Structures are given as structure tokens and as C-alpha cells.
Amino acid sequence: MNLSTKISLNGLSRFVFLNRLLACIATLWMAVFCMTGLALADLAQQEQEQVSPEQVSPEQPLGEQAEPGPQDIIYNMVLIPAGKFTMGCNQFGIQHGGPEHDVVLDAFFIDKYEVTNKLYEKVVPEHRLRRSPFSSCDDCPVSKVSWYEAADYCYLIGKTLPSEAQWEKAAGARNGCEFPWGPQFDVTKGQARGGLKLRDETASVGSYPPNKYGLYDMAGNMWEWVSDWFTINDRFPEIMYNPKGPRRGQMKVRRGGAWSDSIHAMTSGWRDRSHPFSRGFNDIGFRCALNIIHKKR
């Protein structure tokens, strides 16, 4: 091998060596950069997860759960505790509430107010064109909705119509023969919107005192669709657990009475029915419920 060839090979070796050295330095630099970036990102995450006392308002001490806001699904809902109650009223007969029978329910949430025109029209805007003239204000209970439209609305916002048993327990009366506040109704005492004429119209939801659970208008103002198909029973099992009603039928149950209907219909155990496809009723609205999933142990 001559001298010129040796010089050329040595130069090539030095070139390859320098390239490899630079590649190693670049790799080491990138590793350091990535590790630093990950450390900074982890630190930022820890800072976001920590809440300092200055970030907590006096009304929300550390460790307490914040009240649900308008975007929470349980906003303006009330938790009805689990338990047993006597459903129905013998004196109403088998058409409208009898016979009385014992029911056990799991805990559930139910809307504090009847669904209003304003809330319903956020989901179904075209309803504004057919608001009832007897319940036309934004905060008046929605009406002129079929059972299917009411069920669809609850479904679309992540809820459901309450079962008939859930509705009656939530009414909060001492028994099914009474009103949520007691055995008597006096239209002059401002107990509920009832005992009036159709022309007297509904009131804005929440205009009358709440029941013992904090629910409004569980008697009067507007009939309310519930999930059950209507059927007539003259006997029931000794105890019923979370009953859902028959699997099929022709009419759907409505509860609670209305401002212009019979005063008897405002009692907690009174039940009536209407065709589920009809959307022409000026006096039937609804509220939604939310069932709690109980994990099996």
C-alpha cells in the first residue's frame, strides 16, 4: 500500500469517527431534553391536582363535595332515600288507586321541578310554536307533549321518566289518600295550584311550598306522565320490589292532578291514564328521574 492510499484511509476513518461522535452527542442531548420535558410536565400536572386553601371558597371547605352546577346531571334533582312505603288508597277503588299495597324502592333522584317550556325547548326548539295558551311562560310547566316525547326528552338528557311507584313515594304524603301536606286542601291557603278553572292557567314552577323532600308541584299545577302502562289490579304480592308496571298496554299513567282538574286527583295515591301518542293535552307535563346503579357485592 503506497503512502497516498494510507493518508486517504486515515482521513476517511477520522471522518467516520467524527460522524459517530456527533451522533452520540445528539442522542445524549435528546435524551436529556426529553427527560427534562417529562419532569416539567409531571410537575405541572401535580400543581394542577393540588388545591391550596386559597383556591377554596369559605363555603366549600377542603374535603367537602361541591354543590352540583347547571352542567351536572343531578342539578336541581333531589335524592329520594331507599325504603318501604304503602302505595295507593283503598277509598279510590281499583280504577284510581286501590288496593293499597307495600312497595320497597331503591334510592333514586327525581327532578325538583316539573320540566319547563324553557328547558324542554332547549332540546326541542319547535315546541315553542305550540305552547299551550294556558301554560305559556318560559318557567311554566311544559305541556302538549305526548308520553313518547316526554320519555325521549328525559332519555336525551341522560334521565328517564319516574316509575309510578317512584313518583308516589316522591310525593311525600303520609299515605296515598292524602295530599303531600296533609289530609285537606284549601284553595285559599296557597298549598298548591289546584281547584281552579282552565282559564286560570298554570303557575311558574316552584311558586308553591315544597313537600318534605323539597320537591315542588307534586300536587296540582300540571299532571305528570310516569313510565308505567296503566292496568287495573285487585290484588298485589305481599311486598313489591322496584315495580315497573306491566310490559305492555294501551294507556300510560299520569299522576298529581292539575290546576283545573278534580281536587281528588291531587292526592298522592290517585292515578289516571291517557293515550301515550296524544300531544294535545293542555294539562299534562312531566318531570324526569335518575336511577342509581347499585353494585352487587
From TrEMBL:
Signal peptide: none
Pfam families referenced in this protein's UniProt entry, alphabetically: FGE-sulfatase
InterPro entries: CTDL_fold, Sulfatase_Mod_Factor_Kinase, SUMF_dom, SUMF_sf
Protein origin, superkingdom: Bacteria
Domain Sulfatase-modifying factor enzyme-like as annotated: residue spans: 76-289
SUPFAM superfamilies: C-type lectin-like
GO function terms (MF aspect): formylglycine-generating oxidase activity
PANTHER family (alphabetical): FORMYLGLYCINE-GENERATING ENZYME, SULFATASE MODIFYING FACTOR 1, 2
Name of the featured protein: Formylglycine-generating enzyme family protein
Organism: Candidatus Nitrohelix vancouverensis
